[in-house]
TrEMBL record, chains A, B:
CDD domains: OAT_like. It is an enzyme of class 2 (transferase). This is 4-aminobutyrate aminotransferase. Its EC number is 2.6.1.19. Keywords: Aminotransferase, Pyridoxal phosphate, Transferase. SUPFAM superfamilies: PLP-dependent transferases. Its cofactor is pyridoxal 5'-phosphate. Belongs to the class-III pyridoxal-phosphate-dependent aminotransferase family.
Amino acid sequence: MASALRASRGLRSMGRVAAGPARCSFKYTSVRALANSSSAEASFLPDEPVGPKVVTPIPGPKSQEHIAELNKVFDTRSLNMLANYQKSYGNYISDPDGNVLLDVYAQIASIPVGYNNPALLEAAKSDQMISSLINRPALGNFPSHDWASILETGILRVAPKGLNQVFTAMAGSDANETAYKAAFMWKKQQERGGPDVEFTEQEMTSTMVNQKPGSPDMSIMSFKTAFHGRLFGSLSTTRSKPIHKLDIPAFDWPQCSFPNLKYPLEEHVEENAAEEKRCLEEAEHIIKNYHNPVAAVVVEPIQSEGGDNHASPAFFQGLREITRRNNVLLIVDEVQTGVGATGKFWAHDHWNLQDPPDIVTFSKKAQTAGYYFGNPELRPNKPYRQFNTWMGDPARAILFRAIIGEIERLNLVEHTANVGDYLYGEIDKLARQYPEKFQNLRGKGQGTFIAFDNPKRDEFLLKAKSLGINIGGSGASAVRLRPMLIFQKHHADILLDGFEKLAKSV
Amino acid sequence: MASALRASRGLRSMGRVAAGPARCSFKYTSVRALANSSSAEASFLPDEPVGPKVVTPIPGPKSQEHIAELNKVFDTRSLNMLANYQKSYGNYISDPDGNVLLDVYAQIASIPVGYNNPALLEAAKSDQMISSLINRPALGNFPSHDWASILETGILRVAPKGLNQVFTAMAGSDANETAYKAAFMWKKQQERGGPDVEFTEQEMTSTMVNQKPGSPDMSIMSFKTAFHGRLFGSLSTTRSKPIHKLDIPAFDWPQCSFPNLKYPLEEHVEENAAEEKRCLEEAEHIIKNYHNPVAAVVVEPIQSEGGDNHASPAFFQGLREITRRNNVLLIVDEVQTGVGATGKFWAHDHWNLQDPPDIVTFSKKAQTAGYYFGNPELRPNKPYRQFNTWMGDPARAILFRAIIGEIERLNLVEHTANVGDYLYGEIDKLARQYPEKFQNLRGKGQGTFIAFDNPKRDEFLLKAKSLGINIGGSGASAVRLRPMLIFQKHHADILLDGFEKLAKSV
């Protein structure tokens, strides 16, 4: 296949060409796609480019000009690629130099149904959207007459099983932090003896100086290599990398080992089961003994920023049992895993829990954020305890409703399960051929939420761009795939062609 | 004037009438406005209602139905009034029952240029807005080619004097928290010996378990009765009311007395100067001695949620000197005071500082959020230290640009200074007539950012609604006025008529 690939006319478009007035505009077709007829597959978005096109080094000269201008006023050191979104479409991101890349990173896993998706375009032009944009309400004080309907036909239409309430927020960090606040208020209320027991004078005076008992020494337990956000409370539960945390004061909250599974899973069944058992025992030990009492455990279904670390449904079932038994809440952080990418709408749907999580947080692909809950006791006992001026953004909630509509119309969750199976299977073949380059392949049966380790990960990602593919990393050495839900077999074939080329050269 | 008011045909519309099919739709004209010819003044928005209209008790029957539906899925206990934003216009907020209220609360001080402002409508329909809505970027990684231009023609066009950089955020809380993070990183970098000194192994391992030295015991000093937000870091600097803080773990950070000025100011000159001196001495003592070293001081130009507490320019000049002398940052929280309401674009413009604040945070009327800074050392020394997925929202930044355009077109900052002077003068007259009802009138020369205390504040606010006026409170007993920037003399007259009526009945 290698020589076939090299001979492919299309593949020339994936190599870097010298900068300058770009004239090449031929179309790309994956050899793999031709071979297995998925090139005949229709795109969900008919006007999508047929393949990537790389006409300059990235960043090209025009991008460099924009970056230099931007850098005067805005830190650009984490800039990955400058984009032209008006010219991006579907799975393809464009830049000002005319480069068009297959985007399997998707704004850090946050574009659900493609750039310039026509259904979202229509929603964005609607009167309701425009009113929400220009008349932004303080939702807790002055909700609009249609806010209940926006919630019921949108955010709550896809509420996780067993959860029927929502507190809306702005992004993943504050979704998690408001969930933590709900957990602390719930736990203290139990200790106090119920919702009708008034705060003591001592609680009210001590909290004004940030001291206990009013500001209690309680904690949220998180897991090693977890990521839950970067504000002060969420960052105290984030354990992914020092660079995220250095120099920022943190709460004395506990961390528990997360299972360190060995791959391939089928060759390490007993070892992995023992590892998960060990972690569950550690979790229960911390919950029972940590000096700052634990109000809740927060966990990602798949640790995403931390390197795509998975655990089995049995582990999460065990965690649910332990948290229930010890009367602490289980908060499932679905900020990155939610909204279809794992082949279920919510990744925790894979666990088949009889007793649902207490709280599920969401953001990213929802394009809005917040937390779901079901237990009415998680509404604090008095108004204004869980409150802020905007409490989310109806404009973004309306967009999520349109996203949900598109997911349903195109059956994108089932689709993603299927294309994920195909993609996983093909990478697995590559991994057998190039075992050093595709280590610890993970995400089987988890839709397109797939990752592997590569010893030269950063070079791998950089070179992928020159081949017309935008991919992200996570953790120390993981290549993480986060395609959109409209990622199809023919896109997978382009990605796989690129992987094969990278396996040979990086 | 009282009998004239009662005789006014218009005023009947301000009283509660029985619920039921509303037939009354006559127009309201303030007697005060007729008397001083401001009724002839043209509205900035020509199609604005001429006055409030109250046709049912609030909430009326239709609102009650919507509230009951909303309450099933969303906590409504802090609900003030259900709104129909499609039918609201300019300074007037409407509800589903046909009530139309003059809105001098404006979504907790966050609507700048009126409901359904035509210029914002146009911006909301623009291609750039629509693209920003449906192609939401991860701004730190993949900014759009026009992001520099959106910043320069919008957020940065109104940057406070001396500050030319911005970090964009989502709302007031995370604007403040990211500013605090910048302060901690700056302070630790100084201690470490500059941007090129690498983190130690001990710092990197200790921060992963939330312990020093990697997660240092440093602090942000705030002031008593301050409000800076409700996430864990911002809440640790908020000192307004116990209900905001109870049961939520907090950092051991210090608070300093804020001047408790006596009114009228001109009768307490020496006393107030002594009070400000005392507070400044306390501030310096805390900065020099607090056991968790202070990296920054955060202060509101006017403490807003805490009850509209003012201090003089001399106090803030002193605070700038003290923070500079002690090498800690001065963060000015302009979330509520910014964007014109005080008769200057930024409230701290009133201070005439030669040495600008290190950081100024903004949100609310900007409809987007973030922090300004000027010192390049406030960019952390490495990428990804100050970072998150979305880092703000270009759609909201585009809206701020349109707001700025409207402020410039209508000269709304100077206008607000003038109408504020008029409003203050007239309330001052009422205060002389009804001293018990308008205590501690404050905000002279501060645009429409005016407040007073009323011993029956909550009843005052409630009854104002039945008179067709939506007003907010703050602190324990303050009535705070937060009209929009398009609030004009004829609106002021309607408000003043209402105040006079309230003074007699509450």
